[in-house]
Amino acid sequence: MLSFVGKRLATGVGLIVTLAVLTFFFLQLGNSDTAQRIAGQQAGPEAVAVVEERLGLDRPAIVQFLDWAGSALTGDLGRSWFSGQEVTEAVTTRMSVTVTLAVGSVLLTAVIGITLGALAATRRGWLDRAVQILAVIGQAIPGFLLAMALVLVFAIELDWFPATGYTRFSESPSEWLLSIALPVIALTLGSIGGVAQQVRGAMIDAFERDYVRTLRSRGLPRRSVVYQHVLRNAAGPALTVLGLQFVILLGGAVIVEQLFSIPGLGPLALSSTSQGDIPVVMGIVVVTGVIVVVVNTLVDVIQAWVNPKVRVS
Amino acid sequence: MLRTTRLAALAGAAAITLTACSSTGADDSPSAGASGDSAGAVVEGGDLRYGSVVDISTWIAADAAWGNEATYYMAVYDSLLRTSATNEIEPGLAEAWEYNDDLTELTLDIRDGVTFTDGTALDAQVVVDNLNRFREGASPDRGLLDAVADVTAADEDTVVITLSAPDPALEINLSLQAGLIASPSTFDAEDAQTTPVGTGPYVLDTAASTIGATYVFTPNEDYWAPEDQHFDSLTINYYADASALLNALRDNQVDVANLNSVTQIPDAESAGYTINSEPVNWKGIILADRWGMNNEALGDVRVRQAINYALDREGLLQGLEAGYGEVTTQIFNTEGDAFDAALDDAYPYDPEKAKALLAEAGYADGVTIVMPQTGFVPASEYELIAGVLAESNIFIEYEQAGESFFGDLLGGTWSAFNFGLNQEPLAWQTYNQAIAPGAAWNVFHQADETVEGLAARIRLGGEDGAAAAQELNAYMVEEAWFAPFYRVLGVIVTADGFAVTNKSGQAVANLWDITPA
Amino acid sequence: MSTPTTTASSATGAPRRGVLRRLLVHPLGGVSMIVLAVIVVVGVIAPWIAPHDPTETSLSMIFAEPGGEYLLGGDSAGRDIWSRLLIATAFSLAGGLLVMAVASLVGVTAGLIAGYYGGFVDAVGAWFTALTMSLPSIIVLIAARAVIGPSMWWTMAIFGIFISPVYYRVVYNSVRAVRGELYVDAARTSGLGDGRIIGRHVLLAVRAPVILLMSGVIAAGIGMQAGFDFLGLGDPTIPTWGQMLNEGFYNITRSATLVLWPALALGLTTVALTLLGTALRDELEGTSERRRSRKAPAWSLDEDVPAVVDHGGEDASEPLLAVRDLAVAYQAGDGYATVVKGGRLTVRRGETHGLIGESGSGKTQTAFSVLGLLPKGGKVMAGSIVFDGQELTGLSDAQMNRLRGTRIAYVPQEPMSNLDPSFTVGHQLTEPLVKAAGLSRKEAKERALALLARVGIPDPERAFGSYPHQLSGGMAQRVLIAGAVASHPDLLIADEPTTALDVTVQAEVLDLLRDLQEELGMAILIVTHNFGVVADICDRVSVMQKGVMVETGATADVFDDPRHPYTRALFEAIPKGAPRAPLAGVTSAGLLGTGALK
Q1: What b-and-e string marks burial along B35-48, b requiring 16 or more CB atoms within 10 Å of the CB?
Q2: Which of A132, A228, A289 lies at the smallest CB-CB distance from C134?
Q3: Closest-CA residue in chain A for B142?
Q4: What tens digit of pLDDT does each residue of A242-270 get?
Q5: C345 with C246, same domain?
Q6: Residue C169 falls within a domain, yes or no?
Q7: How many separate domains does chain C show?
Q8: Is A87-312 a domain of CATH 1.10.3720.10?
Q9: Which of A122, A134, A144 to mutate to test binding with chain C, by most C CBs within 10 Å of its CB?
């Protein structure tokens, strides 16, 4: 088990390194006038040269990268070229918001998606079709459209939730909940469908397993077989889908945060990439990568732990 | 909707060189819709949630920009001098100031007993250091102190600024970012960009703030002008997305905000906000290539005048700004010396006349002008302008601008371009902004003898200076260096219980002019 | 943002004939195909039917009312909303198609090469797949935009590359599966080059999954494009739905209809694409439910059932189980596949009855009918099943549950697949005892341990705590037998109980069954294709052919004097002098069992 986790993490580290290298050199391509933009458009060549020297932009890209990587290894991701904020600080405070949204919607997705999927698989009939159609529509309609509709209806017309902004949990738990409700719902609506479909499929698959018939032949009621054996065996695929959803939701959060003016990674990613604020972009990419690798490893570990074939051997 | 963010940034960038204030003459024009006298019988206290359309780029006073960012700076810093909403110079950290006779030496008397929020005392040397840092800093508006030759501390609380030549704008500039005074402890601090220390009415609570999103301020308990400190707490929320700001307004999540665009006025009104507006920019086409270096046609004054006649200004105002604004053909501030109401319609809409002028200049088949198009501005805006001009056989070909738009623009890549510039309070400022050979927005840096003669008179001020300003304005309109459309309103919306007095020529109000009502 | 799901990975095999036709009659598929066809046609002819230039602005038409010169009115710049909508349709579809084209080209090519040759491409593919899954695509697109500027085509192409692993994985898996199969090897030994093999066999195998993913990927592309444009990151000179939405939401208080049309177009297109994907999957994977969702067609037995050759010799006592004229059918297409036509069976108390026939003869279906556990889609259409005087057909599931486990028990064929891999043996043995038989946990455990010991498991305690994968096949079958007899049933239905076991173990299991029968006095209905098994333990035997009971009688009588030609043919097929080994690949459910109907 330990070596399994170790191997997964080692692969993850490799991935993050690749990611960092690719991102860094890719960004180099498009940001030839970064120093000019940092110094201001009206700054003369001397001022630009000063900025270049201060940030070390006059060195070859490879040296810049190694310098960055060296500091990154010690946990120092540098400072934003534009705002001067420490990247570690910027990314961690904002990442916590984004992860809150993503985790919130993964949980909500899991609860609703698994319930709907299980109901669809067991009841079939009209409920199944209703779930399928809802799932398809939720999956098909772009998240930003849902988000805008939610804001117009629930924040502006009904005034149940704030239309924009984010309240920290430490400030007021109830307002925190209200402030993340709409973004989380907007994100969730899009992903419930996929999860419900997968759970439904996995359960129908599990239903047709031989052991289900055998258990039923011993007089176990259908319901108890479904809720213990079928669900348990469908949990693996469901977990994998939820892990995938997490990454997708991180991406969805970028757009939703921008629309809700939530200080998560999204707006930071948008502004830093379009500015060419390489330290911040690198920080976002690396930290996102780390989180995804950790989540994926976690999913694999849970997967392995749930599956006795891996656990007990 | 990033475009609107960038648009706001652009407006800010344009505002930099360009922002300013003080009108020596006209002063008593209360801003439209403002609640008049703001001090007085008002209940002080409460919280202020301010919606901003730009983020603050740096907290380092020496590197500061202004424009829409001014609100942030005014919260934590004081400037040496202040300008009122009507652009009169008032005392700031300098209690008194005085020019010598030939206007080359300004003596400032620094206020006693003021301390920074880190406990450091304010003295003349600190002021000298701040001014010198600004002159060498990275502010896009470093030029504000270009006329300054030397700054010295005469004693504990007296600072003497020596000029290389008279600068009528110096007092105003010292009320802008050039006059911001930061604590010496921030000079070499590593976190100076994110943690400001000033003498201002509020203190930034960095723990409660999220950079790039929300800035929370607590009152400065020892503020030297408590009468200007109206609120118990101040929060500035930055809305990167225009729709997000609209939604925040619709949901009454902000108390006071400046708008991205006048087209948001109906939304703000229907959400119960009071609209306070004042012209801030003029918008139009800068006919930069007046010598015809790149585009020969533009070198002919008749072609430039034809462009002016071809503009359906009323239509553009309705189409682009939903009618909020004032059509004009001049670029000078309505409250400044140079302003002449008659020049607001020097070129009435007349396509026939435009065509006739073109024919006279030898362009009977029309002229083609290449102009830049950027993602900052809605594509439709470009199309509308091109559509209007095409009726008079003036054909605009747009070229997609890249990331280096500003550099290309200022480097003279295009002979003409759509733009908006701040309406500076002083004619001298407008001259330095867009007319002088060295002005940033005279992108081909062309010099004209008539203009230079007038400028020399304006520099010295007085009645002759004012007369010269009027002449300069008339000359600019006649020579059609620009093709202005209209003056754009700067809009600040206030919720019930809040009032604001807009500041002429500035996108945001003075922070102390935002009050409980 | 919708993302194509990868359920299609389970799809194998080429599309069946007439998929298009069947899609059209599929309730969702038909509607979505029509909607999409209209949208595509509109998009293609848009440049010719758009009444105005979509970028042509007019000061006089700003927020113009619908009707008049502009069919749907004017937008905030006085452009014709109708013309913009038409052209935006073309660009949005083109964007989606570009994503699909790039993703499938890159993904399929890489998947084919990596799957077929493995090696370097395989490693790179896996790496790239992992890479794309560890970073949200929108961040990559924004970064790419910063580098190459706001080009819709580049953005969509990069998005295509970014989601190409969706294709890659599916194709890779399919190719791997096909690669291992015999016919590719056969093709190779017959001298076909790699190119021909890929072209002829491998491409055929990946066709279905690739088609399946198509609509989902296009929908994802269109959605991503709209989101990108909505954020103002797109190319401002190209009208798209996302840009129209951006403008619409910004001006929603001034004109609400600005949002309506692009939202409708975008929603309709993506929903139709996704529904089409679902319908495609239904049809290609045969999971369509529309037949059963409608009114069931009428069933009738369209042929006469020949009489059974009955050797007689049954005693006159009341039978424990009497099956008469049983008919079992599965709905298939517009009609039924009737797998049991004349099921006729009599089992008396304490008797061991063999039900014999080749695979697909309906013997397992008959057994499942008695248990009331026919696979999905199967239904008893006619006849009666009387158990101990009680008619079983028409009983509710709850009523059957009172009989199952306590009075009728079941031993399956394949021991491994009949134990839930996620639960311990102990749990699976005690759960029915607690829930169905009403024992306490402690009693149940004691009973289970005793049973495990009884069926010959050496270390019952250890087996009790084990997971199925820790047991051998023979052990697992003993566990299943223990589970079946735990509540002392009157009738034990054993479905090929020895087929999946080693020959040496087979005899032991049969002995165990015989011993248990004597001990408990229960009747056994043993389903088998093996005359050896029948001869070994059966008192009576019934022979089934093609769903019809052809011959029945005491084992000795039938063996001595097989009268039906089919029975005789079965006997002749037994190799002389050798114990009959199980047929390779025969499954208990036969051709019409679960495998075929899934």
Answers
A1: beebeeeeeeeeeb
A2: A289
A3: A43
A4: 888 888 888 788 888 888 888 888 888 88
A5: no
A6: yes
A7: 2
A8: yes
A9: A144
